[in-house]
Design a protein that fits this description.
Helix content: 25-40%
Low-confidence stretches: none
Order of helices and strands: EEHEHEHEHEEHEHEE
Distance between the termini: 29 Å
CATH architecture: 3-Layer(aba) Sandwich
Mean pLDDT: 93
Largest sheet: 6 strands, mixed
CATH class: Alpha Beta
Structural class: alpha/beta
Number of helices: 6
Length: 217
Amino acid sequence: MSKRNLPSNASVATEGQGGRMIAPAATRNADALCDLLAQWAPPTGHALEIASGTGQHISAFAQRLPGLEWQPTEIAPDRRDSINAYTAELPNVAAAADLDATAAGWHRQFGGLDLIVLINLVHLISWDETRTLVSETARALSPGGRFVLYGPFKRAEQLTSDGDKRFHEALVFQDPEIGYKNDENIAALMSDQGLDVIEVIEMPANNLAFIAKARAT
C-alpha cells in the first residue's frame, strides 16, 4: 500500500505507557468487536488480523478468544512495536509481522487460516487495492474459514449520516482514489473471489460488519 496523504482524523494514535500506542477509536469499539467475534469466529484454529494498528484490538481478541492462535500484522514499524508491547504476555499471540495486505502474493506466506479480521481499513485504500486484499484473503483462508470485515461503508451508494459524509469528503479531497466503499460492491467482490457472505451486521457508530466464509474449492 502506497503512503497516502490522509486527513488528520483518519488514523489517530497517541503514545501510552510501555511503548503502547492508544487509538481512541480502538478503545471505543473493542468491546463491540469482541462480542462480534465471540459470535462468529471459530473457537479454535489460526487467526490473522490485517492492519493490527496499535495492538489494542488483537490484545482484546486474544483474551476473549483464547482458543485461537493469533497473528497480528502491520506495515508500520512503530505500530508493530506497540502491538508487541500489548501482547507480550499473551501466549496465543505471535510477534507482529510486516504485511502489506494490498500487495499480491501474501497468501503464500500466511495460508491455511481459519479466521481473518480486518478493521477500519478499506475506506483508506483504493478499489484496486481492496480487490487485491479480498482476493488474497480468500486464498489465505482454509475452506470454511471466516473473514470478518468491519468499518464504515455506503449503503446502496448512499452516505447515511452527516459524520460519514464529512469524513468521506475529507478522504476524497486528500486522495480521489480512496473513501467509503459501497456495501453491495463489497459483497459482490467477496462473492467473485470465492467468499460467501453469511451476514451483514449493523454495528455501533454507523459501521457495518461483513461475515463471510471461504468456499470449498
